[in-house]
Amino acid sequence: MRRILALCILCLSIAPATAQDAADTVAPEAAAEAGADSAFGSLSEPARAALATKAEGRPVLAEDWMVAAANPLAVEAGADVLRAGGSAADAMIAVQSVLGLVEPQSSGLGGGAFLVWYDAASGAVTTLDGRETAPLAATPTLFQDDAGEPLDFFDAVVGGRSVGTPGTPALLEAAHELWGTADWAGLFDPAIALAEDGFVVSPRLASLVAEDAERLGRFPATAEYFLPGGTPLAEGDTLTNPAYAETLRALATDGANAFYTGDIAQGVVETVRGAAGNPGLLSATDLAIYAVRERAPVCVEYRAHEVCGMGPPSSGALTVGQILGTLENFELAGGPDDVETWRLVGDASRLAFADRGRYMADSDFVPMPTAGLVDPAYLTERAGLIAGRDAALSEATPGTPDWDHAQAWGDDASIEFPSTSHISIVDSAGNALSMTTTIENGFGSRLMTPGGFLLNNELTDFSFATHEDGRPIANRVEPGKRPRSSMAPTIVLRDGAPVLVVGSPGGSRIIGYVAQAVINVVDFGMDAQAAVAAPHVLNRFGTMDLEAGTDAETLADPLGGLGFDTEVRELTSGLHVIAIGPEGLTGGADPRREGIALGE
Ligand code: GLY
């Protein structure tokens, strides 16, 4: 087994801005119709029923176990493991290995992930950091041109320069070592069978391949797989991936070392360093020394609940926690239709994102005021800035959380796009798993390895600029450092027991999606499906984003009247939620994507 490093970050509650203007110049991953069950080939009766339940806008109910993820084939694989008595960690391995095949644009072996675990036996919450690392040869100017100017985003993304050392294979193994009960090798069987026998290309995968055909076509191995004969894969095509099956067999037999050393690792390194036009720096040593880090969770008190998630290098739990911890000072009594609710959520989010841009990064490399950022007294002070107003804040600036470090960071200038996938699982022993998993941009770096998987572009989650007004930026590139993330896999507890397992893809909008889902359940009493389907209203330190085609559009005039800049746009979350209550498990799968919740 590979090493899991246990590092204690502060075990406290938590919450953070970006180059939003630049990010908004490119549309998010397109939403695709969930499609009929036939869109996924031959599904089991329970999976077909789950798709139908979702289409009706109802939650899925279960007593014993449940899994919710982004593709029915992956959910089925996890359900089979849970039905056979496997743990949530076992089921996650089956789900992730199938997602890497059927939803390759979002996550896979070539990427990284964060995992939050509630252990039923001990009541403990643990987090595993399987984030990618910057190559040891990387320098802070990795994403700058010869004149020191930041590269154009996609010039940085596409090719080898953006590829960090993948963490997902090591994370799968670490989770199994800690919490697995099923035979490791067997957990890859569903994905191996689908890779060899073929799976049906889903509507979403087909539409994203068509949109990205030019970039996918730049690299021969990638083009051969996604654009066979020069034509983009089409919905309903049957696709095989024998190379991926071989990779999974090696993992099944030899564990994660099969990925980080030997032929698979060599294939990764050669693909990155040989990328035409934009080679990268990843080396065999970077792979060989990769280690998952076990970290203490960041937990924030919210209306008698504890909202727990992944601390640095993710900004997810800290920023979600700052938003909720600020809102804790208000009632939100008007509910989801009240403009005052969204004024408070919007400005609480702007304040949190201001802190995120100033302070949050990989705390193994830069000092961070982690505890101070989610100190209730600090958040009450921040809440005071937005209390009793009848207009939006004219500006939202970083605060001064309690911190014993003299360094003043510059504000971050990273660009983040939505991709990624989220898995929520509860097993029959009562363990809960929340994992957000990614290769960053849709199709990552666009580099396909000989092992049949895409490589991430996670390093573009670093700030391209190194300094702001002469002050260093906390999230600048450094060798071995993990790029700041927005991923917010979350488990909400009440009286020490889990009541909600939640997370979403969506770049830095993940933070708003997750905070809103928690509010929908805790404040507004929505069921799991209603909570994920509700129209999105969020703010990342810029415009108030209102979900197109929903009732959220009606907020444009009133919020504009309060002084917010508003924008109506697609907001393609991929929330997967399991609520745990006295009556059992209730699951919700985001209607904006193809996933389902399934349980018994
Ligand atoms: N690359 C998505 C995230 O880590 O936030």
Can you give a write-up of this model?
The protein is of the alpha+beta class. The chain has a domain at 17-288 and 414-485. It contains 21 helices and 22 strands. It has an eight-stranded mixed β-sheet. The protein has a seven-stranded antiparallel β-sheet with strand order 2-21-20-16-15-10-9. Strands 17-18-19 form a three-stranded mixed β-sheet. α7 (189-197) packs antiparallel against α11 and α15 packs across α16 (339-359). The chain is globular and about 60 Å long. 62% of the residues are buried. Residues 6-35 have low confidence and may be disordered. Glycine binds at residues 420, 438, 440, 458, 461, 485-487, 507.
Show the helix and strand layout.
Layout: E1 4-7, H1 20-23, H2 45-55, E2 60-62, E3 66-69, H3 72-83, H4 88-102, E4 112-118, E5 125-130, H5 153-157, H6 168-179, H7 189-197, E6 199-200, H8 203-211, H9 213-216, H10 220-226, E7 238-239, H11 242-254, H12 257-260, H13 262-273, H14 284-288, E8 292-295, E9 298-302, E10 305-309, H15 316-327, H16 339-359, H17 370-373, H18 376-384, E11 421-426, E12 432-438, E13 467-468, E14 471-472, E15 490-494, E16 497-502, H19 510-522, H20 528-533, E17 537-539, E18 544-547, H21 556-561, E19 566-569, E20 576-581, E21 584-589, E22 596-599
Parallel strand pairs: 1-8, 18-19
Antiparallel strand pairs: 2-21, 3-11, 3-22, 4-5, 4-12, 5-8, 6-7, 9-10, 10-15, 11-12, 13-14, 15-16, 16-20, 17-18, 20-21
Bound molecules: glycine.
Residues 420, 438, 440, 458, 461, 485-487, 507 line the site of glycine (GLY).
